[in-house]
Write a structure and sequence with these properties.
The complex is a heterodimer of chains A (327) and B (249). Chain A is an all-alpha fold. Chain A is built from 13 helices and 2 strands; from the N terminus they run H-H-H-H-H-E-H-H-H-H-E-H-H-H-H. Chain A has one domain (2-14, 30-320). The model of chain A has no long low-confidence stretch (mean pLDDT 94). Classes of the chains: A mainly alpha (327), B alpha/beta (249).
Chain lengths: 327, 249
Amino acid sequence: MIRETYVNALTLLLLVAIPLWAVFMDEPFTITLMTRAAIFAIAAIGLNIALGIGGLVSLGHAVFFGIGGYAMGILAHHAQTYTPLAEWPFLIDGTKSMPLIWLVAIACSALAALVIGALSLRTTGVYFIMITLAFGQMFFFFAISWAEYGGEDGLSIYIRNGFPGLNTLAPIQFYGLCFVLLCLVLLFAWKLSKSPFGLALNAARQAPMRVETVGLDPKRVKLVAFVISGVITGLAGALFADLNRFVSPTMFSWQTSGEIMIFIILGGVGRLFGPVVGALAFVALEHWLGGLSDYWHIYLGLLLLVIVLFGRGGLIGMVSGREAVHD
Amino acid sequence: MTDPVLKTQGISKSFGALRASRDISIDLFPGEIHAVIGPNGAGKSTLIGQICGTLKPDTGSVQLLGRDVTHETARARARVGLGRTFQISSLAMEDTVLQNALLGALGASGRPWRFWKDALNDKDLRATAEEALLRVGLEGQARMRTAELSHGQRRQLEVAVALTLRPKALVMDEPMAGMGAEGSKRLTGFLDVLRQEAPILLVEHDMDAVFALADRISVLVYGEVIATGTVDEIRSDAAVQEAYLGEDA
């Protein structure tokens, strides 16, 4: 526990120090990489609530990532083309305001997670994985055929959306925004894991029958966790689209779902900082190995294999050992 | 005579051609320990499932505190006041002993939708959980991982979790199984006191415990109650002798 705390603190320190160093050295690309890692970390923290605490192996979290992305893309597209989003029943305009876009992303992800969760939670195990995967593919193919918003080509947004008081076009400022959101999401995930709800969710993963016997509904607990999880991943999707100023159906693809899961497995399933460490490691590998070979996924695969076989607690587990009992 | 706390009326349950419960009517009165014994495959688990709400009887009804709960879920019955301990421990093994007890307290509080407050520092939850652990004698193990407990200690924790619900009736599925002689004796003493708080429907293989504790015994054979009576009546019942006790009594 103590060593894990050090690892966590070191991770936070890196998240602050590397971008500051990059500003000093005038390396904007490094800041972009760190922003990418921070956003991936948020997405994975979302999944970690469902997967790590609730044991819900969702291979469909790209749905929420994509919904967040398209919420940004569609709203900004209408704003930049000066076309209304809807004229009936009342006029709705697009927007270039990040807080508004986030609200829409959160609301849409919550709704999608509620529907997908309610249907998927009727199953467990492999069937749960398959049905969440199927939902992911449905959204993917829907996005591909949605010609109004770019279909297969996706949507480009010319200028990054704005946040009051910030110049989001400055890489370090946009990074700062993502970093603060990451810290808030981490704080929430930490509090949730220790809360009465976290206790119930944790037990619902290990012994659903027990939860039922004390008069609580394990399925409802898991559904609420799934919605919270989807909302956080959806928020990350909106940020990711803003980072790239581009959305495409790829955000909905099953590879995206897989990558979000890989972040968690790399870092450590169920550990607070697992998704953060995993996302950082993934982005670093993608950058370095990707520079060496187009087939860098082979090495990623090997690394995953080693971690799953030998370091059952992910990278954090390899460094800090088995998770200690909480007090 | 007072009303029974728990009562089944003619419940039957079949799985295909197997008639696991045949027209079972048993009841449980305040302050009582009513033991259900029977050979393996007699349908004890099926009976418990129907009483606790994990199985639906094909016919017949289940009443809890005078209320028909036949069509209610297991968790609704738990909220009415039915406590249950499992034959195979179904505790959250990775969690601490205290966390398991807290889960019971959380269920009893009916307020799981709190995402911010620290469950371990919630005074009410903690008081309920610690009191239950103290009563079963696990207060010293509160911070241990449940997986590290001995078999007997897990049984004690099962009982503690049930106690956090302040049950009006308890259904215990082989609480003595796997316990050493010493632990078994201690638990027997504890159940003897507990019955005043909540009557116990006790499904148990340990005949010493059953004969020491039970006010009444029902004998289940092939899904059917072949006899119900006091310890002495059951001991001297010819049908029971033949069907069950004959082998090892």
